[in-house]
Amino acid sequence: MSYINPVPIMRRGHDTPEMSRIYAMMLKFIKFPCKYFQLWNVRPNCGYFFTGSHWYGADQNQMAFITAFMSKYGDFDEELAGITREEIRDMCIKTIRYSCFTHDTGPEDCVRVMGRNKLQSGTKWGGNYVPWPGPRNKFFQSSQVGGSITSLGFAVWIMWEDLDEETRQMAYNAITDYAERWVNY
Length: 185
What we know:
Elements: H1 7-11, H2 17-29, H3 31-35, E1 37-39, E2 47-49, H4 58-72, H5 78-81, H6 85-102, H7 135-143, H8 146-159, H9 165-182
Antiparallel strand pairs: 1-2
Helix pairs in contact: 4-6, 4-8, 6-8, 6-9, 8-9
């Protein structure tokens, strides 16, 4: 697989007052989700944010994208963020791994943690698990995963050089599974 480093691309045009304000808001924001990060002991070097079992894997994949961005971009202010850039980087990698292991393409025994969302807890994400019978429900559930896959893809792209080969392969499997499902739809 060829790789284009996204960090120089992300830095273009970042020295505007608007981007500085947005980045400062992200630095303030990151304190909140980091308080709700937990390690997942089913596989090594894994963790999750919040309850770990929201609809369509959105909670983990969006946080993977945000933490990937924060770990590579901008003038990071540890005091404002309340956490180091290295700690955010580690949370990002752990979240990517959790997401990949609990995706439909991950090992069968790797399911999301039990949380408040009883329909998603203890299941895989990716659209192949559907808690309600019927083809319309499977289509709907499966079609909603696109945003999560996109967030996962961006996070993996940003963090590519920091990921081990196992994680890269699992991410590739999750992303191509979704793409292949819809390519001829």
